[in-house]
């Protein structure tokens, strides 16, 4: 196949339809700053080029989600995580525990979980386990330990990754969020906290970047030894 | 008594020897930026003006501590907390639990505890209760709950105040410290974390300001109802 | 009682109705980012679970306050402090002086004062005592000294806590506010000032965090020795 | 076994000798801020408590490395990475490609590689593949693709992780370093770059934190499917 | 000619119509913060004062572009680059390659390219050559090398100038953009990256400043030796 | 006189000996970053060019002050303010009150006061009037009001200018200093405070810039109406 | 006169009607954050309390200016400077040159000039003298030198105060503005520039604070020796 | 020629001896962080590989310059610019005016000028033309206008590039320096100023980066039309 044929020209963008072959990942439309029509057009083009693979769109406005529902009948649209998915489900191996403290972090958690699924791994979503209520967190300890990799979504002072990091030796990705009550410098507080955690080996991504954490977590989970085990299980919420 | 007589002129500084009468506190010599001789001179002048009250000096260099030992025979000098205390002990009522995660935070914890004692309250020092080892922290829960006010000294991501704040309804003061492994902007990380804690009602002071936290904690403890109880107890380390 | 029964599931959030038992505090609904319906629903659920205790909602939009007035007949709604309170008054002991420089700081002062009352202490609100008009501040000196703890709400350069800290030895909490005329970095100026005050023992909370200061002040006041005295007094505005 | 027996008291610190059992990791002595004698003492105590496991010490000063050489005969000391390792090698499965642009980043790369080995995975170190000399980087493409996880150590503008992220779908950890020629704010430039990479799924740690990246990479590699394959290979430099 | 006659007074501004004589450049109306009527008025005045030279207006709102179309019949209006040009084309010598990674950077690229043309040089616009798809960039290498100066427009982590700087010895101007997915501090990330590039000799301008880069690039290109050659070529898109 | 003759060439610098004629000010040697020999050489050259005017050198190291004492017999050297003055006194008119809170601010106050004198105005130095001891400040109120302009030198939270600004309508210059106990960002706290003061009309200079404030204050004082009065008075310390 | 009678209670604020007696200044209503009705009410109350003095209101919204025009017949309303003035003109002595580079800085210049007039000094407004067109600035040199004090209003890189400071020895106040084309951090660039000027003795105020500069400049000008001269002149625009 | 033969392996570094062939530039050894012996070794290796081309070393410590003098007999060592040059002079075409305000900026100016010469262009160094002494700058106007490109080195508020940009239409590169008297954030002030200049088309490099500016300026000058003219002239200092 020659170089040219890996791209689809939509007029407003050339889409690289062969990226998955190079990296093993799904194709993604980043919705922020695009019109609903551009998003739907890009999703359709990518889906037609690769009918055997899912297409994910993220950061969709209410208008974009509405148009996806109307124009892309088979699409799964998530209003909390602001995503749409088109095409067949990806086969899933390995499991990612996606954990957060409260309802304010749910949009980031959902964006992450959907990304994990589209990129080929199972998810186990665990909400309401903030460090100011330790009994709830400790009650979920075994469930978390059963996964291949943990994504801890945390705003405010972002203490959750540190506490989780002391309870487990699993790969652990922290997603700082821009959630807070006062002067937190748009998430800088949570970001600095995740980078300065006293628990060794915690990895991090940009503020509110549930998508990036999901891509990385899926890559780790689907090549995990324990993923052999998890092929039968379906913990996804 | 006229205005003039409340001050002692040492040549390099006029010392206000009547501050305690206005605020109820001890007199303090802030040692940073002063020569050992200036520190010793200031302590002696304050002690002579008020032989019935203790004098505290903080942030002492090794040389200043050495001179205090040599020139002020009755002084109690603490090499960890970098303090010296001269004169009679203050009567103590109420108890402050001073808590930290590890040995790196000890200098700030010791500065705080000595300040609490000099300003008239008991202390209970609890070290090595970091959030990455929750079992240690939970094991000290009852001991912490027995105090009138908690001072939580914490560096790095400073998750300790948040976890403590979920375990108790006592007044809680967080002291962020400049301890960290990587890029933490000289304690800004810990500082922001203590101000953005998800546990309501946590108070904070400046980075590494064990003295300030100690003054505030003593003021709270010594006017506490439970201080009636604590007059007999002596938990100070 | 088992673990489960301490939570109420509202669909969009699980509410911890037993927090007060652990910490001695009231239950609070943080209104920012929630719909009016969610706020009213959460207040009603908490009030039904604990009909003997007040429920506080903060940071309410005009729409949320309107719905509280319509749907929660017994609720006390404060348009300045942007709060609503439901249920019986908490018994009050001890007194908090809540002080600010001018009308621009009133919303934060009111949020703080209502929180103090709901968390079980009296309040004495003192407005218009900025440092650029010292005679006003000095005229209120005795009134301030009669409280158990002071909350000083201050924007701009936030000099008020420093001046108060030199006039009294009471526990003193500074609330920096985001009020200012020019480039003040959203309250960073006031925040830095309160943390660098030359008066020892000043405690601080996040910018505009009247709620957090109120929780802390009430905890200090209600366990204060002098609270024995204040049971008869009613200085609340 | 009771709680107490998992700690060794050295006078200046209580060492938690059972951490590995909880997390599956080795024990580590963080050398910065400790005296050479304290470091040697801590390494010896941990090694005696667990003679079957390696002990790693990081951020060692020249004096500390000298004392390790003299007092701990079996220790492997690395002057570039500033580490010392004591005890038997850990069994290794899976392989981490540790990549950097130039000699200035070597200390961080070596700290990372040694950590990976001690935490149980093989390493393949690839130096001098900066983006300003693309031909060198492209020449190593197959070698990098043969690993289970990549650690990209990069200072200045830190473009390396982005370029690598476009060439592979492997898990990829970026370590920003404080290396630079001009005003780079102590590594903030590299740090921001790694968090804003245009390649999806890049994870990051704090500036210069080769240790943290090594812990995370080893955890991912040693539970990787392809680690079955790598048991025979020995690419470590 | 006296001093006065070089200015045109429009009531709301005195316009310096002789600037070009001093610097050799065209006249420019910076549209941000001006009303559509003010912009059209200023363009007309400048064009009448110098009917032999083009007038450029930048940062035009949709309303301003609409009015330009209606009121200035001969004007060329660009909705992507948000510019309008009035009057005869400037003679062009030398060629500027204007390069960017993706569609999000197109507005800045177009503003830059139009500025280059108005200030007297040819342009060759090359889009979609981001570093995460190296094969695209390498495919355009010869085309880029055929110019006199390169302008690299790059957002996010802005790795493009570094990679280009390693492939060529041409004068190279980086334009960091405020394009990004997460916490990038309004373009600070890209800005810092362009200033810390590992490729020597990269010049930079302010974030999103396509105009400034265009002015500088045209000045370099039109006095370039190779501009003798380029007089016949017309690579402008 | 031709252009050339206004400069003296010392080899390492051309000195502009005619600046005073243009601005009415004295000549100044900024000592930071210069060797003692360079400083002495520059002072001598300026003094010989204008034997009727004083020469001021600022920010002198101990070594530079020592050399000034040895090589410039008539020089007045101030070890607190780190200045040296050579040549005849300037005639003085008008009076500047230079005020600070404590001994830590003395070096900046002295640099300012000496500058005021050299630039032709009287000074009245008032030390130890911090806002945490209001009675001291109020006791000096009349003395401050008797000057033509006030310079308020203040570190930490820098509340002094605000309080002074409420007590007087005189021109008021604040000099923030880098004095502080904790995290104050090298004087940013004081700087922001002086710029956000609630007292209208407060002017400010850079952190620790006693020299700049002195130049400005002298310019204001010596052209003041009341300077007619002050010609006989000599309040300088 | 007793304390009470110096204040007027409007319900939403107590207004200090005796401030002018203490500081010699006019009374001012800061309009930002107040409703049009509150502003008009405050102006009227202050004017009635002191019918012999002008009242100034600043930072007025279009709606507030409209209401001032309708409700306060004698008020002078300035739509550029966003101010309203009520009552008799203040007597003026001394003259302030208010200078800026371009039309973008006009609102700040007008706010400043009106404040100067209300606070009792003449003004000479000089616009369009930016440093990128030196000939314009040099042409106004004598006019500037004829004033008692200069206010230089400057945005972007704020080079104007430095250039002016080299041309004159008059008191000079810089007002940095938030005007800029690219990434200038809301005026931080201009602010830092004015504080780091190479011309000695430049004073500064907060970003865009034309009011503060005007108060200070008037205080300097009206007590200036040359104000004797200026009583006859009327340079105000 | 195969890939390998373009590199020389020195044990501690592989040196790319063929970079010049790719980019047309000289080879450079960045001296910061290297030992004197490593620097001398690298210079010798590069010089032997390309005896027909100069080798430049920058940021040399006094010790490194001493060793260069001793070990590399033909080397030209500059103590002000901290550079050493080895091998034959590069042929020079075109001319760069390198301009600065004062002696404090000389090290950066000299580093830049030497780099320009080594990279193949003439230089004209013009010192002491700060904006606070406009007459000096205007006196050099014709000399500056005779060059092909200007490098303006400027610290403090960095107003020089703006003033120069208004006087000329030549390509103009600003080098902000970390020179300043007070709080300037290590050159951030100058950096922001150069990026926010009101003169269009000013390019910039990192703080103190005389080398980078020199590389860029030489690339522009040596391909300049006027370089045909300048082959005979020798303005280099």
Automatic annotation (TrEMBL), chains A, B, C, D, E, F, G, H:
<dbReference type="InterPro" id="IPR039476">
    <property type="entry name" value="P2CMN_synthase_LarB"/>
</dbReference>
<dbReference type="GO" id="GO:0016787">
    <property type="term" value="F:hydrolase activity"/>
</dbReference>
<dbReference type="GO" id="GO:0006189">
    <property type="term" value="P:'de novo' IMP biosynthetic process"/>
</dbReference>
<feature type="domain" description="PurE">
    <location>
        <begin position="94"/>
        <end position="226"/>
    </location>
</feature>
<protein>
    <recommendedName>
        <fullName>PurE domain-containing protein</fullName>
    </recommendedName>
</protein>
<dbReference type="Pfam" id="PF00731">
    <property type="entry name" value="AIRC"/>
</dbReference>
<dbReference type="InterPro" id="IPR000031">
    <property type="entry name" value="PurE_dom"/>
</dbReference>
């Amino acid at each position: 196949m020659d170089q040219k044929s890996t791209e689809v020209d939509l007029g407003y963008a050339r889409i690289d339809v062969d990226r998955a072959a190079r990296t093993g990942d799904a194709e993604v439309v980043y919705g922020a700053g695009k019109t609903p029509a551009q998003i739907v057009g890009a999703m359709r083009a990518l889906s037609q080029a690769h009918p055997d693979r899912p297409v994910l769109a993220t950061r969709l406005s209410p208008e974009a989600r509405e148009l996806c529902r109307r124009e892309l009948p088979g699409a799964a649209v998530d209003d909390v995580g602001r995503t749409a998915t088109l095409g067949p489900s990806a086969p899933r191996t390995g499991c990612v525990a996606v954990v957060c403290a409260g309802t304010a972090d749910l949009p980031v958690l959902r964006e992450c979980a959907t990304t994990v699924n589209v990129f080929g791994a199972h998810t186990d979503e665990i909400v309401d386990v903030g460090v100011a209520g330790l009994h709830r967190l400790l009650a979920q300890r075994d469930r978390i330990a059963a996964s291949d990799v943990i994504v801890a979504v945390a705003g405010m002072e972002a203490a959750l990754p540190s506490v989780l990091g002391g309870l487990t030796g699993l790969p652990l990705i922290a997603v700082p969020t821009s959630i807070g009550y006062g002067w937190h410098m748009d998430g800088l507080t949570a970001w600095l906290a995740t980078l300065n955690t006293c628990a060794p080996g915690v990895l991090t991504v940009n503020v509110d970047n549930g998508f990036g954490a999901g891509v990385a977590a899926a890559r780790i989970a689907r090549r995990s030894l324990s993923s052999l085990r998890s092929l039968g299980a379906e913990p996804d919420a």
